[in-house]
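Please fill in the sequence for the structure shown.

STRUCTURE ENCODING:
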């Protein structure tokens, strides 16, 4: 390794050597990150959701006390069905995250579950300004909301939705065995449109107007990109 870095820094002035050393360092950190960074995110989320799921499995259904706070369509679903789905999505999702199996699906499912839970039990009953709303960024139950933990969960889950499980996962192994070679990552019009729909709809559970507007913009962007031929180039 030292010989490789020495070759990489051979030639050039001090600035060139510093830049080459920095590139050698960041290349290796990024290489390790593809293996380790998603693993740590998966494991902490597996612990949190697994613990919550097993608590529900051993406990009593209390969803009937907060059903009126559930966003549509969960507000019209039987609380027994909602309890069953939440319990087993958390348990099965936790095991899937540990293994790195179907990671994007389960991370997105748990992201939706997190938004629904936030709307039902972690969101303030009323707020008139962003400053007042931000009082709920806490781990407490003083009437202002307590959405700090679910917000952190959502922030952790989003990279798993976008980047997947990483190389230390069954997803990566199955991809190497059964799927075509990965293409070049893209952030084109279709990508942003998909993000608008995928994240706008869950956000609508907390910010209805903004979330629906974001989802509508995503749909419009998808249609425009499709008719401009972007879908054929994808």
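FILLED IN BY: designer on duty
SEQUENCE:
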């Amino acid at each position: 390794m030292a010989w490789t870095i020495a070759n990489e820094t051979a030639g050039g002035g001090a600035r060139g050597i510093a830049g080459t050393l920095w590139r050698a360092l960041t290349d290796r950190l990024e290489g390790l990150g593809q293996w380790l960074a998603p693993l740590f995110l998966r494991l902490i989320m597996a612990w949190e959701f697994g613990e919550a799921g097993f608590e529900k499995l051993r406990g009593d259904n209390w969803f009937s006390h907060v059903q009126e706070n559930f966003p549509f369509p969960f507000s019209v679903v039987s609380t027994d069905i909602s309890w069953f789905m939440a319990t087993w999505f958390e348990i099965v999702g936790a095991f899937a995250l540990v293994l790195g199996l179907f990671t994007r699906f389960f991370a997105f499912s748990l992201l939706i579950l997190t938004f629904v839970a936030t709307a039902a039990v972690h969101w303030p009953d009323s707020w008139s300004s962003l400053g007042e709303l931000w009082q709920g960024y806490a781990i407490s139950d003083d009437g202002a909301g307590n959405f700090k933990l679910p917000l952190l969960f959502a922030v952790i889950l989003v990279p798993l939705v976008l980047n997947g499980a990483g190389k230390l996962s069954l997803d990566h192994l199955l991809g190497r065995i059964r799927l075509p070679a990965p293409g070049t990552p893209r952030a084109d019009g279709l990508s942003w449109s998909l993000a608008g729909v995928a994240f706008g709809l869950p956000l609508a559970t907390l910010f209805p107007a903004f979330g629906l507007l974001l989802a509508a913009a995503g749909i419009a962007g998808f249609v425009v990109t499709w008719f401009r031929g972007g879908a054929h180039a994808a």
